[in-house]
Amino acid sequence: MARASVTPMAISKGDTVHWNTPQGKTEGKAVEKKTKEFTHDGQKFNASEDEPYWIVESSKSGSKAAHKESSLS
Prior knowledge:
This protein has strands spanning 16-21, 24-34, 38-40, 43-45, 53-58, 64-68. It is mostly beta strands. The protein is globular and about 30 Å long.
């Protein structure tokens, strides 16, 4: 039986997304896609076209964080 390839979900600005935290799954809003190296809250991230990051805003706390697109659902 052939194995189906999994295509990452297409995320757009404003979409509701989910990610895992030590406290469990949480949700928020996709705020900004990053495809070049950037700094967020003093931490450096190496985003690229092939491995983009998103700045997401937590629905619960309102805080913003950077997550790899591949870690969002």
